[in-house]
Amino acid sequence: MQNAAPKTLGPLSRREARFAWTLLLPTILSVALVIVLPLMAIFWISFKPIALEDLRPASALVREQLRGKPKQSGDAAIIRYKIRNSSQKDPIFGVTLADEIPSSLEVIAVDKRCSLKGKNLNCSLGAFEGGQRETLEIRVIAKQDYFSNNLKITDSIAKVTGRGENILTNFNFTLKNFVHVFDSAEFWTVIYATLFYTVFGTIGALVVGLFTALLLNIDFRGKGLIRGLYLFPYVAPVIAVAFAWVILFDPFSGSINALLVQMGVVDTPINFFGQKPYALIMVTVFEIWRYFPLSFLFILARMQAIDVEMYEAADMDGASPFQIFWYLSLPTLMGILSILFLLRFIWTFNKFDDIFLLTGGSADTRTLTVNVYEQAFAVSNIGAGAAVAVVIFIFLLFFSIFFFRFFNREEGL
Amino acid sequence: MSRNSYVLALCLGGMWSIVISVLVSVAMSFLTGMAFKPNLTNSAALGVIAGLLILYFKSKSTIILFTIFACFLLEFPNKEIIWISEDATRLQKILTYTIFSMVLVLPLATMLKGLEPGKVDRFDFETSIIRFLTGVGFIIFTVAVFIPFYVMIMTSLKSQQELLLNPLNFGIDFSKGLGLFRSYYELFTDFNFGTYLWTSLFVSVLTVIITLAFAIPGAYAVARLKFKGRSVFSQTILLIYMVPMIVLALPIYIGFSMAGLRNTLIGIVLIYPVTTIPVALYMLQGYFRGLPAEIEEAGLMDGLSRFSVIRRITLPLALPALASVSLYVFMIAWNEFLLALMLLDDPAIFTLTRGVASLDSSEVPRQHLMAGAVISTLPILVLFLALERFMTKGLAVGGVKG
Predict the structure, then answer these.
(1) Chains A, B: CB pairs < 8 Å
(2) Per residue in A12-31, pLDDT tens?
(3) How many Cβ atoms from other residues are within 10 Å of residue A51's Cβ?
(4) Which SS3 state, helix, strand or coil, does residue B170 take?
(5) Cβ atoms within 10 A of the Cβ of A408, count?
(6) pLDDT surpassing 50 at residue A2
(7) Does A1 touch chain B (CB under 8 A)?
C-alpha cells in the first residue's frame, strides 16, 4: 500500500495536511512559547551573572516639587525635579525628562540642560551612574490663576525615560555559574542524593506496584474498595500528604516516634526528615508510597489482559504458583515493566515538590531539581540555578536518547 | 528438596504470629493511647505451636480458645505475648488477647488449608506460602496507605493540648460535637479558605476547558489526518513529558515578572493549560485512534465538513474519553503546587494548595495545617470515588506523567 501511493501529493491530501497543521497550530504555538522558549532562555541565563534582584532593570525615577511657597500672585517659586537612578550599581543611558508647565506659572529661567517650547519642558540629562542623583530647578513666578484654580504642580506628571542596560539581554557572559555549581563541595552530595532517590524510588515503586497488582489480581469481596484506597496516595494533593507525613514522623509529637519509643525499638526519638542517613531514605520511601499506585494500575491492567488459557495450560501441566509467576507472568509483564521503569525513572529524576515539601533539601536530600530552586531563590543566584537546570537537561538528553532507542525496539506504548 | 508440612506450619505460624502481635499492639496503642508492646520471641513461639496444632487438629474454635488461654497463662513478667501497660483494664486485656488469637488462628488456618501432616507436594507447599504473603501484603499496604490519611483527619479534629498530651492517641473525642470542627471553622473565617476553594475550582475548571479546546483539534489531527511529520509530532509530545517543571518554572518566573503576569490569576490560568495540553493531546489521540474511522468517512461522504464530523461524530463517540481526560487534567490543576508557590504572593488570590503551603509556619497550629490538607484533599478524593471508572482510565493512560 505504502509503496503504491503516488510520490507527489494530490490537492486533496495537501488540503488535509494544511488542515491538520491548522488544528495543531494553537498547541504548537503555546508549547513553543511556554516550553521551548523557556528552555532556550535557561541556556542563555546559565551563562549570565545574574541575581534575583537584577530582574528589574535600572530605571530613572523622578520627584517633582514646588519650592518657595508662593502665597500670592507675583511670588517667585522654584519647580524642583529630583531624578535618581533606581539601581545602586547599574548605569542608565540617555535619561530625558518631559513635563508640562502649567500656564499659571510663568517661567523665568530654565536649567541649561533643558529647553522650553510653549508649555512643554524637555530636558536631556545624559547618562546616570549607579546611584547617581540629579536636581533640576526651574524658576517661575506664580500668576493669579494658580491660586484661584487651586492648581498643583503635580497635576501634569513629569515623565522620565532612560535606557537601563538589561542584564538579561546584554552580551555579558560568564562561566562562573557552572564553576560555582561544579566546584561547590556539595555537588557530589547532590548527585548522590539524586541517583539514590531516582534509582531506589523507581525500583521500589515498581516492586511494590507489582506486588500489590498480584494481590489484587484475585477476586474477593471489597476488592474495588481496596483498589480505590491504594490509589489515594497518588490522587491526593502532594502538599496534603507530604505534610501528613511530616507530622506523622515528627520527632517531638509524631505518632510514629512515640510508638517506636514506647515499644522500646529506639531510646530517643529519631528526626526522620532532618537527620542524615534517615532523611534520604524517608524521602525515597515517600516517593515509593506515593507512586506505587501508578505502577500498580499499569501492571494490573496488563495482567488482566493475559490469556487465561495460558494459566490453565500451566495448571494442567502441574506448574507450581511460583513457577507460573516466574516463567509465565513475569515474562509477559516484562514489556510494561521496562516501559514503566524508564518513564518513572525520568519522572522521579525530575521530581521536585515532594522533597521540597518534606525536607526542603536539608540533611543531604537536595537533589538536582531542589538545587535549582535553592540556588535561584534561596541563594538568589538565578544564573547558578539555571546552570543546575542545564546540568539536569544534559542528564535528560542522555536518558531520552536511551529511551527512544528502546522505544523504537519495543514498538511504542 | 523435600517439603515437609510441619516445617512449613511452624515457619508460617511463627512469622504470622509476629506480624499479628505487632499489628495488634500498634492498633491497640493507637486506639487507647496506652502502651502495648509485642514480645516477638514469645509470640513466635506461640505461633509455632498454633501452626502445628492447626495442621494436626484442624479445629479452629478449640485452637482459638487454647490461644486465649495461653495468652493469659503467659502473662507473667517477661513471658507475655503482648506486654500491656498497668493502666489497662481487665476487659481491655481480654479483648486484646481475643482479637490477637482470632487474627492469629483464623487466617493461619486458611493458609494451611489442604496441607496434610508430613510430606507435601510443591503445589500445596507454594500455595500456602502465597496465601501467607497475600495476608502480610494486604496488612502492610493497607496500613501504610491508610495511616497518613487517618492522621491527617485525626490531627485536624484535635486541639493543641490534646495533640501535645499524647501523640499516640489516635482516638477522636466525639463528645465535643461540633467543636470537633473548630479548625475548619477558623480556616474558613480567619484564613480565607472559602475564597481559596473557589479560586482553585475556578482555575481548575478553566484549565480543563482551555486544555480541551487546544487538545481536541490537535489530537484529532494527529490521530486521523495524514501529514508530513505526524510520527515525529507524536514522539515529540512524549519528549515534552520529560522536561521537568522546575527547569521551566525559572524562566517562566522571570518572564512573568517582566510581563507583569506574576502574582495574577490570569498568569496562572495562562500557564496551567500549557502544562496539561501535551498530556491531554497524547491521551486523546490514543482514544481517537481506537474509534472506527469508517463512521467518520461515511460522514465525510455525506457531505459533512471535517469540523462537523469532529463535532457530530467523533466527540460524542469519545465522550467517556473526554470525561477521563477532563478529570485527569482537573486533578493535575487542582493538585498543582510548584507554579502556584512561585507565581502567587498575594493571599487574596491564593489557590488552595498555595493556601495550605502558607499554613506551614510556626505561628499556625498544626491542626489548622492538617485541616487545610483535608480541605484540599477531600474534593478530589470524592470526585475520584464518584467517578472512579473514568479516573482510573485517565490515570492509566496519562499516568506516565508524574
Answers:
(1) 286
(2) 788 888 888 888 888 888 88
(3) 15
(4) coil
(5) 10
(6) no
(7) no
Q: What is the dihedral angle through the alpha carbons of B125, B129, B132, B134, rounded to the nearest 10 degrees?
A: -120
Q: How far apart are CA B312 and CA B319, in angstroms?
A: 12
Q: Give the pairing of strands A133-142 and A105-109.
A: antiparallel
Whether B212 and B326 have beta carbons less than 8 Å apart is answered as yes
* All structural domains of chain A with their residue ranges: 58-164, 185-380
Note the CATH number of domain A185-380: 1.10.3720.10
Contact yes or no for A232 and B134 at CB 8 A:
no
Handedness of CA A261, A267, A273, A279 (dihedral sign): negative
Predicted-complex ipTM score: 0.90
Contact criterion met (CB < 8 Å) for A346 and B277:
no
> Is A326 in CB contact (< 8 Å) with chain B?
no
| Residue B17 cell numbers, joined | 504470629
Q: How many CB atoms lie within 10 A of CB B86?
A: 6
SS3 A3: coil
Q: Assess B251–A contact: CB distance below 8 Å, yes or no.
A: yes
Q: Please spell the DSSP secondary structure of B336-347, one letter per residue.
A: --HHHHHH---G
Encode chain B (402 residues) as per-residue pLDDT tens digits. Answer: 567 888 888 899 899 999 998 999 888 888 887 888 888 888 888 888 888 888 888 777 777 777 777 777 666 767 777 888 777 787 888 888 888 888 888 888 888 888 888 788 888 888 889 999 999 999 999 999 999 999 899 889 888 777 777 777 777 777 777 778 888 998 898 888 999 999 999 999 999 999 999 999 999 988 888 888 888 877 777 677 778 888 888 888 888 888 888 888 999 999 999 888 988 888 888 888 888 888 888 888 888 888 888 888 888 888 888 988 999 899 999 999 899 998 998 888 999 999 999 998 888 888 899 999 999 999 999 998 888 777 777 766 665 554
| Chain A hits for B240, Cβ within 8 Å | 31, 35
What's the rounded Cα separation, in Å, for the pair B63 and B55? 11
Placement of cell 491660586 in the chain? A147
The residue of chain A nearest to residue B148, with distances taken between CA atoms, is: A244
List CB contacts (< 8 A) between B168 and chain A. 255, 258-259, 262
Cβ contact, residue pair B246, A208, below 8 Å: no
Query: CB neighbours of B279 closer than 8 A, spacing ≥ 6?
Result: B241, B328, B329, B332, B398, B401
Residue range A151-160, pLDDT digits in tens: 777 777 778 7
| A258 Cβ under 8 Å from any chain B Cβ | yes
> Which residue has cell 493543641?
B160
- Is A13 within 8 Å of chain B by CB? yes
Least confident of A5-9, A73-77, A233-237: A5-9
> Residue ranges per domain, chain B?
5-165, 184-398
- Whether residue A396 contacts residue B238, with contact meaning beta carbons closer than 8 Å, is answered with no
In the DSSP assignment, the letter for residue B291 is S
Question: In degrees rounded to 5, what are phi and psi of residue A342?
Answer: -65, -50
Find all residues with CB under 8 Å of B107, minimum gap 6, and list them.
B16, B135
Residues of chain A found within 8 Å of residue B151, distances taken between Cβ atoms: 244, 247-248, 255
User: What is the rounded distance in angstroms from the CA atom of residue A237 to the CA atom of residue A354?
Assistant: 11
pLDDT score for A409: 57
What is the C-alpha separation between B353 and A354, in angstroms, rounded? 13
Q: How far apart are CA B336 and CA B211, in angstroms?
A: 15
With contacts defined as CB-CB under 8 Å, which chain B residues touch A218?
A: 134
Q: Cell triple for residue A378? A: 534561596
Q: Which class is A58-164 in CATH?
A: mainly beta
CATH top-level class of B184-398: mainly alpha
Cβ contacts (< 8 Å) between B402 and chain A: which residues?
291, 347-348, 350-351
Interchain CB distance below 8 Å, B337 and A24 = no
Task: Establish whether domains A58-164 and A185-380 are of one fold.
Answer: no
